[in-house]
From TrEMBL:
It comes from Streptomyces macrolidinus. It comes from the Bacteria. Keywords: Signal, Transport. Belongs to the bacterial solute-binding protein 1 family. This is Extracellular solute-binding protein. Residues 1-19 form the signal peptide. PROSITE patterns: PROKAR_LIPOPROTEIN.
Length: 424
Protein backbone atom coordinates (compact mmCIF):
# COMPACT_ATOMS: atom_id res chain seq x y z
CA UNK A 1 0.00 0.00 0.00
CA UNK A 2 1.36 3.42 -0.92
CA UNK A 3 1.20 5.62 2.13
CA UNK A 4 2.30 8.80 3.73
CA UNK A 5 4.68 8.49 6.65
CA UNK A 6 2.18 10.24 8.87
CA UNK A 7 -1.00 8.67 10.18
CA UNK A 8 -3.55 10.46 12.25
CA UNK A 9 -6.39 9.24 14.38
CA UNK A 10 -9.08 11.74 15.30
CA UNK A 11 -8.44 15.45 15.58
CA UNK A 12 -5.71 14.92 18.15
CA UNK A 13 -3.70 13.03 15.52
CA UNK A 14 -1.74 9.92 16.31
CA UNK A 15 1.44 10.37 14.35
CA UNK A 16 3.00 7.58 12.38
CA UNK A 17 3.95 7.34 9.03
CA UNK A 18 11.69 -3.14 7.67
CA UNK A 19 16.49 -5.40 4.63
CA UNK A 20 18.65 -7.86 2.02
CA UNK A 21 21.28 -10.16 1.11
CA UNK A 22 20.99 -13.58 2.71
CA UNK A 23 24.05 -15.72 3.20
CA UNK A 24 23.99 -19.42 2.45
CA UNK A 25 24.20 -20.82 5.96
CA UNK A 26 21.38 -23.33 5.78
CA UNK A 27 17.65 -22.89 5.28
CA UNK A 28 16.85 -24.04 8.80
CA UNK A 29 18.49 -20.93 10.20
CA UNK A 30 20.11 -22.73 13.11
CA UNK A 31 22.92 -21.51 15.31
CA UNK A 32 25.37 -21.80 12.39
CA UNK A 33 23.60 -18.94 10.60
CA UNK A 34 25.85 -15.91 11.00
CA UNK A 35 23.75 -13.16 9.50
CA UNK A 36 20.09 -12.38 8.90
CA UNK A 37 19.13 -9.62 6.50
CA UNK A 38 15.91 -7.68 6.97
CA UNK A 39 14.41 -5.12 4.61
CA UNK A 40 12.02 -2.64 6.17
CA UNK A 41 10.66 0.71 5.04
CA UNK A 42 11.80 3.99 6.50
CA UNK A 43 8.63 4.05 8.64
CA UNK A 44 10.32 1.67 11.06
CA UNK A 45 13.64 3.46 10.90
CA UNK A 46 12.13 6.83 11.64
CA UNK A 47 9.29 5.98 14.00
CA UNK A 48 9.93 2.78 15.95
CA UNK A 49 13.64 1.78 15.81
CA UNK A 50 13.44 0.60 19.43
CA UNK A 51 10.87 -2.02 18.45
CA UNK A 52 13.16 -3.32 15.71
CA UNK A 53 16.06 -3.49 18.16
CA UNK A 54 13.90 -5.36 20.68
CA UNK A 55 13.09 -7.98 18.02
CA UNK A 56 16.80 -8.24 17.17
CA UNK A 57 17.73 -8.69 20.82
CA UNK A 58 15.11 -11.41 21.36
CA UNK A 59 16.38 -13.47 18.41
CA UNK A 60 20.07 -12.92 19.13
CA UNK A 61 19.50 -14.09 22.70
CA UNK A 62 18.39 -17.46 21.29
CA UNK A 63 21.15 -17.50 18.66
CA UNK A 64 24.35 -16.04 20.18
CA UNK A 65 26.73 -14.63 17.62
CA UNK A 66 24.03 -13.88 15.08
CA UNK A 67 24.26 -10.56 13.28
CA UNK A 68 21.12 -8.90 11.96
CA UNK A 69 21.57 -6.51 9.07
CA UNK A 70 18.87 -3.96 8.29
CA UNK A 71 18.29 -2.06 5.09
CA UNK A 72 15.63 0.63 4.88
CA UNK A 73 13.79 1.78 1.80
CA UNK A 74 11.21 4.36 0.83
CA UNK A 75 7.94 3.10 -0.60
CA UNK A 76 8.48 4.46 -4.14
CA UNK A 77 11.76 2.60 -4.81
CA UNK A 78 11.46 -0.49 -2.61
CA UNK A 79 9.89 -2.87 -5.11
CA UNK A 80 12.24 -1.95 -7.95
CA UNK A 81 15.19 -2.87 -5.75
CA UNK A 82 13.42 -6.00 -4.50
CA UNK A 83 12.64 -7.20 -8.03
CA UNK A 84 16.29 -6.80 -8.98
CA UNK A 85 17.64 -8.72 -6.00
CA UNK A 86 15.04 -11.50 -6.24
CA UNK A 87 16.44 -12.33 -9.67
CA UNK A 88 19.77 -13.17 -8.01
CA UNK A 89 20.88 -15.57 -5.27
CA UNK A 90 21.22 -12.66 -2.83
CA UNK A 91 17.63 -12.45 -1.60
CA UNK A 92 16.87 -10.80 1.74
CA UNK A 93 15.55 -13.01 4.51
CA UNK A 94 12.68 -10.75 5.54
CA UNK A 95 11.00 -8.03 3.52
CA UNK A 96 8.24 -5.57 4.39
CA UNK A 97 5.45 -5.29 1.85
CA UNK A 98 2.43 -3.06 1.63
CA UNK A 99 -0.48 -5.47 1.94
CA UNK A 100 -1.81 -4.57 -1.50
CA UNK A 101 1.63 -5.39 -2.95
CA UNK A 102 1.63 -8.97 -1.70
CA UNK A 103 -0.57 -10.62 -4.31
CA UNK A 104 1.64 -10.10 -7.34
CA UNK A 105 4.64 -11.62 -5.55
CA UNK A 106 2.62 -14.56 -4.20
CA UNK A 107 1.33 -15.30 -7.70
CA UNK A 108 4.93 -15.34 -9.02
CA UNK A 109 6.06 -17.70 -6.22
CA UNK A 110 8.51 -15.13 -4.83
CA UNK A 111 7.67 -15.76 -1.17
CA UNK A 112 7.95 -18.90 0.93
CA UNK A 113 4.81 -20.28 2.60
CA UNK A 114 4.76 -19.91 6.38
CA UNK A 115 3.25 -21.98 9.19
CA UNK A 116 0.73 -19.74 10.92
CA UNK A 117 1.03 -21.83 14.11
CA UNK A 118 4.47 -20.29 14.63
CA UNK A 119 3.10 -16.77 14.95
CA UNK A 120 1.40 -15.30 17.99
CA UNK A 121 -2.14 -14.04 17.48
CA UNK A 122 -2.43 -15.65 14.03
CA UNK A 123 -5.88 -17.01 14.90
CA UNK A 124 -6.98 -13.41 15.55
CA UNK A 125 -5.44 -11.67 12.54
CA UNK A 126 -7.71 -8.99 11.10
CA UNK A 127 -9.69 -10.40 8.20
CA UNK A 128 -8.42 -7.94 5.61
CA UNK A 129 -4.79 -8.48 6.59
CA UNK A 130 -5.21 -12.25 6.69
CA UNK A 131 -6.65 -12.14 3.19
CA UNK A 132 -3.68 -10.12 1.98
CA UNK A 133 -1.19 -12.89 2.88
CA UNK A 134 -3.29 -15.81 1.66
CA UNK A 135 -3.20 -17.23 -1.88
CA UNK A 136 -4.68 -20.51 -3.10
CA UNK A 137 -5.12 -21.76 0.44
CA UNK A 138 -1.56 -21.08 1.62
CA UNK A 139 -0.15 -18.30 3.80
CA UNK A 140 2.83 -16.38 2.44
CA UNK A 141 3.33 -13.61 4.97
CA UNK A 142 2.56 -12.23 8.39
CA UNK A 143 0.46 -9.11 9.04
CA UNK A 144 2.59 -6.38 10.61
CA UNK A 145 0.23 -3.51 11.35
CA UNK A 146 -2.90 -1.91 9.88
CA UNK A 147 -4.26 1.46 8.85
CA UNK A 148 -7.94 2.22 8.48
CA UNK A 149 -10.25 4.85 7.03
CA UNK A 150 -12.53 7.26 8.81
CA UNK A 151 -14.79 10.22 8.10
CA UNK A 152 -13.50 13.64 9.16
CA UNK A 153 -15.47 16.87 9.13
CA UNK A 154 -15.23 20.45 10.28
CA UNK A 155 -17.22 21.06 13.43
CA UNK A 156 -17.31 24.80 12.83
CA UNK A 157 -18.86 24.37 9.38
CA UNK A 158 -21.40 21.87 10.70
CA UNK A 159 -22.38 24.10 13.63
CA UNK A 160 -22.74 27.13 11.37
CA UNK A 161 -25.29 25.14 9.36
CA UNK A 162 -27.21 24.24 12.53
CA UNK A 163 -25.79 20.74 12.92
CA UNK A 164 -24.93 20.13 16.55
CA UNK A 165 -24.42 16.34 16.76
CA UNK A 166 -21.98 13.98 15.08
CA UNK A 167 -23.94 11.70 12.71
CA UNK A 168 -24.37 8.11 13.80
CA UNK A 169 -26.40 6.89 10.81
CA UNK A 170 -26.19 7.51 7.08
CA UNK A 171 -29.55 9.28 7.15
CA UNK A 172 -28.24 11.64 9.81
CA UNK A 173 -25.06 12.17 7.79
CA UNK A 174 -26.81 13.09 4.54
CA UNK A 175 -29.29 15.32 6.38
CA UNK A 176 -26.37 17.18 7.95
CA UNK A 177 -24.53 17.45 4.64
CA UNK A 178 -27.67 18.79 2.97
CA UNK A 179 -27.80 21.59 5.53
CA UNK A 180 -24.10 22.35 5.10
CA UNK A 181 -24.38 22.39 1.32
CA UNK A 182 -27.35 24.76 1.42
CA UNK A 183 -25.61 27.06 3.89
CA UNK A 184 -22.26 27.20 2.07
CA UNK A 185 -23.48 27.27 -1.54
CA UNK A 186 -22.70 25.38 -4.72
CA UNK A 187 -19.00 26.29 -4.86
CA UNK A 188 -18.42 24.48 -1.56
CA UNK A 189 -17.95 20.72 -1.24
CA UNK A 190 -20.07 19.57 1.69
CA UNK A 191 -18.24 16.26 1.16
CA UNK A 192 -15.05 16.43 -0.89
CA UNK A 193 -15.10 12.99 -2.51
CA UNK A 194 -12.72 12.60 -5.49
CA UNK A 195 -14.62 10.65 -8.13
CA UNK A 196 -11.80 8.22 -9.00
CA UNK A 197 -11.27 7.18 -5.36
CA UNK A 198 -12.04 3.48 -5.78
CA UNK A 199 -11.24 2.69 -2.15
CA UNK A 200 -14.22 4.82 -1.07
CA UNK A 201 -16.47 3.71 -3.94
CA UNK A 202 -15.90 0.02 -3.28
CA UNK A 203 -16.78 0.59 0.37
CA UNK A 204 -20.25 1.51 -0.85
CA UNK A 205 -20.30 -1.58 -3.09
CA UNK A 206 -19.36 -3.93 -0.24
CA UNK A 207 -21.76 -2.14 2.11
CA UNK A 208 -24.58 -2.99 -0.32
CA UNK A 209 -23.59 -6.68 -0.40
CA UNK A 210 -21.75 -6.44 -3.69
CA UNK A 211 -18.12 -7.01 -4.60
CA UNK A 212 -15.53 -6.31 -7.27
CA UNK A 213 -15.30 -9.96 -8.28
CA UNK A 214 -16.29 -13.40 -7.02
CA UNK A 215 -14.53 -16.76 -7.23
CA UNK A 216 -16.55 -19.55 -8.79
CA UNK A 217 -15.11 -23.01 -9.38
CA UNK A 218 -11.53 -21.81 -9.15
CA UNK A 219 -12.10 -18.93 -11.57
CA UNK A 220 -12.73 -15.28 -10.80
CA UNK A 221 -15.56 -13.37 -12.41
CA UNK A 222 -16.23 -9.64 -12.22
CA UNK A 223 -19.28 -8.73 -10.14
CA UNK A 224 -19.78 -4.98 -10.52
CA UNK A 225 -22.92 -5.49 -12.63
CA UNK A 226 -24.71 -7.45 -9.92
CA UNK A 227 -27.80 -5.86 -8.41
CA UNK A 228 -26.02 -5.40 -5.09
CA UNK A 229 -22.92 -3.78 -6.60
CA UNK A 230 -25.05 -1.47 -8.74
CA UNK A 231 -26.92 -0.39 -5.62
CA UNK A 232 -23.63 0.57 -3.98
CA UNK A 233 -22.35 2.37 -7.08
CA UNK A 234 -25.60 4.30 -7.35
CA UNK A 235 -25.29 5.44 -3.72
CA UNK A 236 -21.71 6.53 -4.44
CA UNK A 237 -22.80 8.49 -7.52
CA UNK A 238 -25.38 10.34 -5.42
CA UNK A 239 -22.62 11.45 -3.03
CA UNK A 240 -20.56 12.79 -5.92
CA UNK A 241 -23.59 14.45 -7.52
CA UNK A 242 -24.91 16.06 -4.35
CA UNK A 243 -21.82 17.13 -2.45
CA UNK A 244 -18.73 17.08 -4.69
CA UNK A 245 -18.57 20.30 -6.71
CA UNK A 246 -14.91 20.18 -7.63
CA UNK A 247 -13.11 18.53 -10.55
CA UNK A 248 -14.84 15.18 -11.12
CA UNK A 249 -11.83 13.67 -12.90
CA UNK A 250 -9.58 13.80 -9.82
CA UNK A 251 -8.29 10.97 -7.66
CA UNK A 252 -7.61 11.03 -3.92
CA UNK A 253 -3.83 11.55 -4.01
CA UNK A 254 -3.92 15.21 -2.95
CA UNK A 255 -7.16 15.13 -0.96
CA UNK A 256 -5.48 16.30 2.25
CA UNK A 257 -4.07 19.32 0.40
CA UNK A 258 -7.44 20.22 -1.11
CA UNK A 259 -9.11 19.81 2.26
CA UNK A 260 -6.61 22.21 3.77
CA UNK A 261 -7.78 24.92 1.38
CA UNK A 262 -10.96 25.27 3.40
CA UNK A 263 -13.58 24.78 0.69
CA UNK A 264 -14.80 21.40 1.91
CA UNK A 265 -16.76 20.24 4.93
CA UNK A 266 -15.98 16.54 5.10
CA UNK A 267 -13.67 13.86 3.73
CA UNK A 268 -13.70 10.06 3.98
CA UNK A 269 -10.20 8.66 3.70
CA UNK A 270 -7.11 7.27 5.42
CA UNK A 271 -6.94 8.15 9.09
CA UNK A 272 -3.87 10.37 8.64
CA UNK A 273 -5.44 12.69 6.09
CA UNK A 274 -7.46 14.91 8.39
CA UNK A 275 -4.62 15.74 10.75
CA UNK A 276 -2.18 16.18 7.86
CA UNK A 277 -4.50 18.72 6.26
CA UNK A 278 -4.49 20.57 9.59
CA UNK A 279 -0.70 20.83 9.57
CA UNK A 280 0.22 24.53 9.30
CA UNK A 281 1.95 23.75 5.99
CA UNK A 282 -1.37 22.60 4.50
CA UNK A 283 -4.01 24.52 6.44
CA UNK A 284 -4.72 27.67 4.45
CA UNK A 285 -7.56 28.65 6.78
CA UNK A 286 -5.80 28.45 10.13
CA UNK A 287 -8.96 26.90 11.51
CA UNK A 288 -8.63 23.17 10.93
CA UNK A 289 -6.54 22.16 13.93
CA UNK A 290 -9.19 23.02 16.48
CA UNK A 291 -12.22 22.16 14.38
CA UNK A 292 -11.67 18.68 12.94
CA UNK A 293 -13.62 15.72 14.26
CA UNK A 294 -13.29 12.14 13.05
CA UNK A 295 -16.06 9.56 13.25
CA UNK A 296 -16.90 6.08 12.07
CA UNK A 297 -18.36 6.31 8.58
CA UNK A 298 -21.94 5.01 8.58
CA UNK A 299 -23.15 3.15 5.51
CA UNK A 300 -26.47 3.26 3.62
CA UNK A 301 -27.05 -0.33 4.78
CA UNK A 302 -27.52 0.85 8.36
CA UNK A 303 -24.20 -0.62 9.48
CA UNK A 304 -20.72 0.88 9.68
CA UNK A 305 -19.43 1.03 6.13
CA UNK A 306 -16.74 -1.59 5.35
CA UNK A 307 -13.39 0.13 4.86
CA UNK A 308 -10.35 -0.88 2.85
CA UNK A 309 -7.86 -2.09 5.42
CA UNK A 310 -4.41 -0.97 4.42
CA UNK A 311 -1.20 -1.83 6.22
CA UNK A 312 2.05 -3.76 5.98
CA UNK A 313 2.96 -7.45 5.92
CA UNK A 314 6.29 -9.19 6.45
CA UNK A 315 7.29 -11.94 4.01
CA UNK A 316 10.17 -14.38 3.55
CA UNK A 317 11.57 -14.61 0.01
CA UNK A 318 11.57 -18.18 -1.24
CA UNK A 319 15.31 -17.82 -2.04
CA UNK A 320 16.17 -17.03 1.59
CA UNK A 321 18.45 -19.69 3.07
CA UNK A 322 17.37 -18.86 6.64
CA UNK A 323 13.61 -19.17 6.50
CA UNK A 324 13.11 -20.60 10.00
CA UNK A 325 15.28 -17.90 11.54
CA UNK A 326 13.46 -15.27 9.50
CA UNK A 327 10.15 -16.55 10.88
CA UNK A 328 11.50 -16.23 14.43
CA UNK A 329 12.47 -12.62 13.79
CA UNK A 330 9.08 -11.78 12.27
CA UNK A 331 7.29 -13.26 15.26
CA UNK A 332 9.50 -11.27 17.61
CA UNK A 333 8.47 -8.03 15.88
CA UNK A 334 4.79 -8.81 15.30
CA UNK A 335 4.05 -10.66 18.55
CA UNK A 336 2.31 -9.24 21.65
CA UNK A 337 5.10 -6.88 22.74
CA UNK A 338 5.68 -5.65 19.24
CA UNK A 339 1.99 -4.96 18.73
CA UNK A 340 1.85 -3.03 21.98
CA UNK A 341 4.73 -0.86 20.79
CA UNK A 342 3.23 -0.36 17.32
CA UNK A 343 -0.08 0.72 18.81
CA UNK A 344 1.73 3.20 21.04
CA UNK A 345 3.13 4.73 17.84
CA UNK A 346 -0.34 5.24 16.41
CA UNK A 347 -0.77 2.10 14.32
CA UNK A 348 -3.69 -0.28 14.37
CA UNK A 349 -2.69 -3.80 15.46
CA UNK A 350 -2.69 -6.88 13.25
CA UNK A 351 -5.21 -8.75 15.39
CA UNK A 352 -8.74 -8.48 16.78
CA UNK A 353 -7.74 -8.99 20.41
CA UNK A 354 -5.56 -5.89 20.53
CA UNK A 355 -8.00 -3.97 18.37
CA UNK A 356 -10.67 -4.49 21.01
CA UNK A 357 -8.49 -2.75 23.59
CA UNK A 358 -8.20 0.33 21.35
CA UNK A 359 -11.97 0.58 21.15
CA UNK A 360 -12.05 1.24 24.89
CA UNK A 361 -9.81 4.32 24.60
CA UNK A 362 -11.54 7.52 23.44
CA UNK A 363 -8.38 8.55 21.59
CA UNK A 364 -8.44 5.44 19.38
CA UNK A 365 -12.07 4.33 19.51
CA UNK A 366 -13.01 5.73 16.09
CA UNK A 367 -10.32 4.14 13.88
CA UNK A 368 -10.44 0.88 15.83
CA UNK A 369 -14.21 0.63 15.47
CA UNK A 370 -14.06 1.56 11.79
CA UNK A 371 -11.44 -1.14 11.11
CA UNK A 372 -13.67 -3.90 12.46
CA UNK A 373 -15.70 -3.89 9.25
CA UNK A 374 -13.30 -4.19 6.33
CA UNK A 375 -12.81 -5.49 2.82
CA UNK A 376 -9.85 -6.36 0.62
CA UNK A 377 -9.20 -6.75 -3.07
CA UNK A 378 -9.97 -10.04 -4.88
CA UNK A 379 -7.02 -12.39 -4.41
CA UNK A 380 -7.06 -13.30 -8.08
CA UNK A 381 -3.88 -13.94 -10.14
CA UNK A 382 -4.61 -11.09 -12.53
CA UNK A 383 -5.66 -8.49 -9.99
CA UNK A 384 -2.43 -6.58 -10.53
CA UNK A 385 -3.39 -6.11 -14.19
CA UNK A 386 -6.79 -4.78 -13.13
CA UNK A 387 -5.10 -2.16 -10.97
CA UNK A 388 -2.49 -1.31 -13.60
CA UNK A 389 -5.18 -0.68 -16.19
CA UNK A 390 -7.08 1.54 -13.72
CA UNK A 391 -10.34 -0.13 -14.68
CA UNK A 392 -12.15 0.89 -11.52
CA UNK A 393 -10.96 4.49 -11.71
CA UNK A 394 -12.10 4.75 -15.32
CA UNK A 395 -15.52 3.36 -14.47
CA UNK A 396 -15.94 5.79 -11.59
CA UNK A 397 -14.92 8.78 -13.66
CA UNK A 398 -17.42 7.79 -16.35
CA UNK A 399 -20.12 7.52 -13.71
CA UNK A 400 -19.20 10.73 -11.91
CA UNK A 401 -18.96 12.86 -15.03
CA UNK A 402 -22.13 11.39 -16.49
CA UNK A 403 -20.33 10.02 -19.56
CA UNK A 404 -22.01 6.67 -18.92
CA UNK A 405 -24.84 5.41 -16.77
CA UNK A 406 -23.99 3.39 -13.68
CA UNK A 407 -25.21 0.22 -15.41
CA UNK A 408 -23.28 0.78 -18.63
CA UNK A 409 -20.04 1.77 -16.88
CA UNK A 410 -20.23 -1.23 -14.54
CA UNK A 411 -20.92 -3.62 -17.44
CA UNK A 412 -17.94 -2.29 -19.40
CA UNK A 413 -15.74 -2.54 -16.30
CA UNK A 414 -16.80 -6.16 -15.77
CA UNK A 415 -15.89 -6.99 -19.36
CA UNK A 416 -12.45 -5.40 -18.96
CA UNK A 417 -11.85 -7.12 -15.62
CA UNK A 418 -12.87 -10.55 -16.94
CA UNK A 419 -10.23 -10.31 -19.70
CA UNK A 420 -7.34 -10.17 -17.24
CA UNK A 421 -8.35 -11.20 -13.74
CA UNK A 422 -7.49 -14.90 -14.17
CA UNK A 423 -4.23 -14.29 -16.02
CA UNK A 424 -1.00 -14.93 -14.16
Amino acid sequence: MKRKLVAAIGIAGMMVSIAACGDSDGKSGGSDAKELTVWLTVDAQNNWPALVKAADDAVIKKHPGLKIKHEYYGWPDKNTKLDAVLATDKAPDVVEMGNSEMLGYMVKGAFAPVDTAKFDNSAQWLDGLKTSVTYEGKTYGVPYYAGGRVATWRKDVAEAAGVKATPKTYKELTAALDKIQKKEGDKFNAWYQPTRDWYAAMSFVYDAGGSIAKEEGGQWKANLSSAESLKGLTAYKKVVDDYMHGDKTKDESDRYIVYGQGKSGMIFGAAWEGATSADPKNDKTGKLKDNLESFVMPGPSGKNIPVFLGGSDLAIPVKSTKQDLAAEWINALTGPQGQKGLMAKGNLPNNKTDLATLKKDPATEVPATAAESNWFVPMAPGWGQVEKAQILQTMLQEIGTGKKSVEAAAKDADTAIDKVINTK
